[in-house]
Amino acid sequence: MFKVLVLAYYFPPMGLSGVQRTLKFTKYMKQFNWEPTVITCGNTGYFAHDYSLLKEAEDAGIRIIRTESFDPNSLLKKYGTITMPREIVRKTLSKISKTVLIPDNKISWANKAYKKAKELLQTEKYDAIFTTIPPYSSFVSAAKLKQEFGIPLFVDYRDLWYGNHFAFYPTPYHRVKHKKLEANSLRLCDKTIVVNRKIKEKLLEYYPFLKHDDVVIISHGYDSADFENLVKLPKTNKKMQLTYSGIFYEMITPKYFLKAFKEITKERPDIAANIELNFIGHFRKENHKLVKKLGLQQFVKDHGYMDHKEMLRRLVMSDVLWMMIGKSKNTDTVTAGKLFEYFGTRKPIIVSVPEGASKFNANEYGASFITEPDNITEIKEAIIKVHTLYKAGELPKPNEEFIESLDRKNLTERLTTEFQFFIKEEVLI
Asked: Strand order of the sheet with strand 2-7?
């Protein structure tokens, strides 16, 4: 059994989509002869906690080491699960943080993780180091470990670093510093994993020293085990259940979708009366105000945050799902992890996204109704079309071969194969 040291700030009991990829990779690594040790954060104040995911990690026998630090989440740990602030407050705090701390506000944790990893590497033999970003500071720490111990280093890009769609560079210094830190880390990295081709293209463009084979695409996925023996929720009415799961922030907003539905209530009240809009996650006060302003209270159900299994039960019960990514610089590189979990349900999906990776994936899925994220008319027409097909019992079926290729176990096998290649290479040398 080979051993891999994993640096991952976002890990259960934290919830939301940022923890899923690393959790599932580490869950299945032992099946491919790799034993993970995960260094993650200690107690935190966070927008969601999911102890069912922590139990999943523990049941898989994952060794988890927690390090306390002085990052913002850790400083709020006494509050446990916290409410997301109003968007204007969140964005302001984010900009202040990005002005003061480079590369991000998890530096304190990354430094603690580095020290703990160094202790482990001095006393135990590890065959690889794996880190996932964001936070980007964990990549900087992992690169230092590679430099000191010479162990193969793998980084997993869930999103871009330099030029990220949420990036804020208040001065030229910030822009140059970020790019330099990333370049230095990539030079020490043995293999870079990315979730889609767009991120790979950007990295090769920004850093010409990277070769095409240095960057490998392993997409997001879904865990078929999550759907086994899943007790389905009974439908409480005959309305078409249209569901969104996730949070709204930055340019991810229900505004255009709700305005489109308002148009349906005026133009086709018969259709609107037969649709129930379900929201799972953090719907936030400003969105409730919008629902009230548009007079849609009778159509909208806010289920709040649910643990992962309950959320899946709600998705499987639904007739149609909806997701969106707003327009912004480099959003073409964004692959929403929840979209792939949607794929696992095999439900038809209304996908409101700009050109880019998510639109490409939605097309591959097959049972998708794709619109521009902010085109109210397109979204309205997609909802009406879906409802017509629903009433006729003719909703489309997805591409089964594509779905099966996204199973988390298969994706983990691909990742560990990359690990193994470097181990074999070392033996040959």
From this structure: 63-67, 34-41, 2-7, 128-133, 153-157, 191-194, 215-217
Q: How far apart are CA 47 and CA 65, in angstroms?
A: 22
The CA-to-CA distance between both ends of the chain, in Å, stands at: 21
Cβ neighbors of 94 (< 8 A, separation 6 or more) are 166, 168
pTM greater than 0.85 (yes/no) = yes
Q: Are 161 and 143 in contact (CB under 8 A)?
A: no
Other CB atoms within 10 Å distance of the CB of residue 277: 23
Q: Which of 394, 413, 417 is nearest to 405 (CA)?
A: 413
Residue 3 DSSP SS3: strand
d(CA 77, CA 54): 17
DSSP string, 227-279: HTTPPPPPPSSSSEEEEEEEE-BTTB-SHHHHHHHHHHHHH-HHHHTTEEEEE
What is the C-alpha to C-alpha distance for residues 429 and 413, in angstroms, rounded to an integer?
24
- Name all domains of the chain by residue range, CATH numbers in brackets: 2-221+408-428 (3.40.50.2000), 225-404 (3.40.50.2000)
Q: What is the mean pLDDT of each run of 10 residues along the chain (429 residues)?
A: 96 89 97 97 88 95 94 82 80 90 95 97 97 97 97 97 92 96 98 97 97 97 92 86 91 95 98 97 91 97 92 96 89 89 97 94 96 97 98 96 96 97 63
Calculate the alpha carbon distances from 142 to 29, 149, 150, 386, 417 in Å: 20, 10, 11, 47, 20
Residue 425: C-alpha distances to residues 118, 158, 419 (Å): 24, 27, 10
The span from the CA of 142 to the CA of 130, in Å, is: 8
Q: Decide if 324 contacts 375 (C-beta within 8 A).
A: no
| DSSP states of 101-169 | SSS-TTHHHHHHHHHHHHHHHHHS--SEEEEEESSTHHHHHHHHHHHHH---EEEEESS-STT-TT---
CA pair distance 246, 305, nearest whole angstrom = 8
Backbone φ and ψ for 67, nearest 5 degrees, come out as -120, 130
Question: Please, are residues 11 and 36 in contact by the beta-carbon 8 Å criterion?
Answer: no
In angstroms, the Cα distances linking 131 to 17, 222, 325, 407 are: 17, 20, 26, 21
- 268-292 per-position pLDDT tens digit: 999 999 999 999 998 888 999 999 9
